[in-house]
Fold this protein.
Amino acid sequence: MVMDPRLTSELTPELRNIVMEIESQSRNLGLDFFPVIFEMVNYQQMSEIASYGGFPTRYPHWRFGMEYEHLSKSYEYGLSLIYEMVINNDPCYAYLLKSNSLVDQKTVIAHVYGHCDFFKNNYCFSHTNRKMLDEMANHGSRVRRYIEEVGHDEVESFIDTCLTLENLIDQHAPHIRREPKAGRDADDSLPPEKRPVPKLPTQRSYMDGYINPEGYLKEQQERIIREAEREKRFPESPRRDVLQFLIEHAPLSAWQRDVLSIVREEAYYFAPQGQTKIMNEGWAVYWHSKLMTQFVLNDSEVIDYCDHYAGVTATSGMRLNPYKVGVELMRHIETRWNKGRYGLDYMLCDDPAQRRSWDTQTNRGREKLFEVRKYHNDITFIDEFLDEDFCEDAKLFTWAADRRTGQAVISDRDFPQIKQELLDALTNFGQPIIEVVDGNFRNRGELLMSHEHQGKDLKIDWAMETMRSLFKIWNRPVNLSTILEGEPRLLIYDGGEPRIEKPVTTEEAS
Amino acid sequence: MKMETDVNRFRRIVRGRIKDNLKRFISSGELIGRQGNKQVTIPLPRIDLPRFQFGGNQQKGVGQGDGQPGDPLNQGQPQPGEGEAGQNPGEHGLEVDVSLEELADILAEELQLPRIEDKGKKNVKSRKFRYHGVLKTGPEGLRNFKRTYKEALKRQIASGDYSPHAPKVIPIKEDKRFRSFKIEENPEASAVIIYMMDVSGSMGDEQKEIVRLTSFWLDTWLKRNYDNIETRFIIHDAVAREVDEQTFYHTKESGGTLISSAYKLCEKIIKEEYPLDEWNIYMFHFSDGDNWSGNDTNECMLLLDNVLLPTSNLFCYGQVESRYGSGQFLKDLEKHFGENQEKVVTHQIKDRDGIMNALKVFLGKGK
């Protein structure tokens, strides 16, 4: 590929050469990415870009200002430093901090190519808009237009409302068709009990009574009635894409509907980054360390590079560092597939000594890694590859707050428990699963949503605040069924005081 | 810059929050001591958009590193105190830097304070020397070496006297350049605040704290209105003396009370140091209202009428309620001045919650 000279115009000639070298080495190693445009920015610009989530052209909103104050202040106080930002877009945009040392710039550039390859190839990102930079600018100008039309305060407070509902999307939506719209063969005009029953085919008419006996026909008729009942329900089946449901059915004005759809679209764009945090960072660190140590580093830079690397993969006790776990798990996979430590024979082998020295020289590590980066997300990645050996090598543990002192202490190094806890935390990517069950609840146009409880209660004060937002949008009372401290509860907000009630089983009531 | 709009929107929200919490800030004294040179760091609860989120906080999780089961983990942050252990870990507050001026504006907005009207006559000009430009004449002390050298070099090259091999540059009189200055006069409004406080035995710590909180806000607002402000502190029981701020708030005496002693000292300070045509003078007197005798009270009124009021912008008397004080002095003042005397403001401060009202009354006249 011929590099467009304009693309790297912001870089110094020295850095431009480094970029070209790293790019060609990355390609040789098999990475596959969109063209990358690097830009040099100072820390103020970096803080600004980071506050906008990477998109300097985003719609105006105060929370970006808050983020900016926070970022630039923590930079000034020397608390944190953003080395780089990469935007999932075609072409990929990457921002380098001007004040980085040359070693750091090299590392960051190599790191960026890792991310870009991941963006382009991981299935989670396959549905993201690759022209998001343009799309965001477009959103920005739409919101600005609404601001001009109806006023800054009104638009901003509506955006606030929408943002509190931001996570009510279907995390898996891009990949699953939840509502297969089967072709209607039955005649909708007849009442369901009179609709013709689809009979099993018979060659001879006298066999009909045996092939399609009375009982069977009755059963079929009932099925048709049931389905018709279900269709009358609204929505037909529970919907996790609550935002879409609201966009379609809530009484909103045109600009409000558009703002809500903007928030929804951006939520879907950012969702994969949350779904692949560990993998994405692990993958990028894996490749920058390969590139740096094998090709790019000078002798004089090794110590600085290592120092940087140690910082990136530092552990902090209570929280797992995605960079560290990610890259270690990647390397673990590579080793396993290089040494043939997979398949039935290996799994059945109980002898620790034999397992430790197992090496059938399959050398499929790299190949496996590329497969993993294509088909996995954090949940499946952890589920599939985090095994007991890794757990031990990486010194994972579970911790809990000591009941007496409140101090967090290491509670266990038991593998199944660790894995269970990790997967729990990642379920639905850390978001509660909430779906719309009924848009005509109590037959009064109220909204009923249901929280699929998985062992963790909702944060109740926030939930109540969020109910207010929902009410603002739905404009009728809103209800959320959930479980609080082991008891089923219904959160209700109807514009007055929010209430928590024991649910009346709605099936019986109606 | 685009970010500026968003930062301003955010600051507006913060401003609103400060306003909402102003009463708490005023009565708790949280902001005193968080005061930097020109800024106050204000702690606010974090501004978050609520969502459907898991509650229960981070009471457990998975970590990585060495250690045996039961070993405590470094959390990098101190544990909350007993009883509240683990209540709200991870919820970091927001700290916002607000300039004192902005804080004063917020206060003014909330209390609907009018801007202060200058007494008018005292638009004193401060004089400043400012360098500007270069002249060919001037005192040697202001000679601009670099420019002089350049001129000499130019002349020598032009006349062919300069040789790069033996670079000797000798300035003559015409080469010399001098920095010139001019005197800038800026109108400047100056004010002096004289705080007086009764420190006799009947004034307790809580009463002093109320005075301290009140004066912090008075300072803040007056500083907003005057470029140059000085504060003086007088404590008195039966005798008055001038002290520094620290002593002012932390002295406890046990003697009786002669209010006139303070007013006399006040008069002396003004006479000696603050000529009337240059200074706006504010006097705040805090007491629990006990005076030694009616005679002394009469003397106070005389002092006020004849000396203090004519010289000052405003005389405020804040009566802090205490268990021992009779509160008589407030009544005496009110009786003596009635409603007519514009420059006298009296107010009774019952407790910390009363500070806000006191501020409003004291500053509400726009004097």
About this structure: DSSP finds 21 helices and ten strands in chain A. Chain A touches chain B through 68 residues (CB under 8 Å).
